[in-house]
Amino acid sequence: MSLQRRTTLALAAGLVFVRPGRAATGDLAAAVNAFAGGRAPQPGKVKLDISTLVENGNAVPVTLSVDSPMTAADHVKSIALFNERNPQRDVVVFHFGPDAARAAASTRIRLATSQQLVAVALLSDGTAWSHTVDVIVTLAACIE
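and the corresponding C-alpha cells:
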C-alpha cells in the first residue's frame, strides 16, 4: 500500500495524518507567519504540553491539543509545532478533519538546546491560535 493511498484513506476516514516538518529559513516568527497565512495567532485554545526542564534533548515527549467541538461547522484543520533554535523551524504539522474525535496528537521531538516552542492551530472558521513554552535543555541534541 503506497503512502499516498494511506494518506487518502486516513483523510477519508476523518483521521489525523502527520507531515514531517520541512526546512524553514528565517526566524521563528517568519515560520509561524507562513503557516498561519499572515494571520496573527491569538494566545489560547491550544495546549502545548511539554516539560519546561528537559534532561536529554534527544527524545522529548510533547502533546498538542486544541479545545474544539470537532463538528463539520467548527473544527481544527491543523496544528503545527515550531521551534526557535533547531536547524528546521517547523517540527511537525498534524492535519485533522471534522470526523476526528478530538484535536490532539502526541510525539517525541529532538531539541538542539534551550529554546522557545510555539504550537499554532488553524481552525475551520479562519482563526489561528497559539501557545508558547520556554524549554530548558540540559543535554542538547541535533546540533549540526
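(Above: one complete record from the training split.) The chain has a mean pLDDT of 85.
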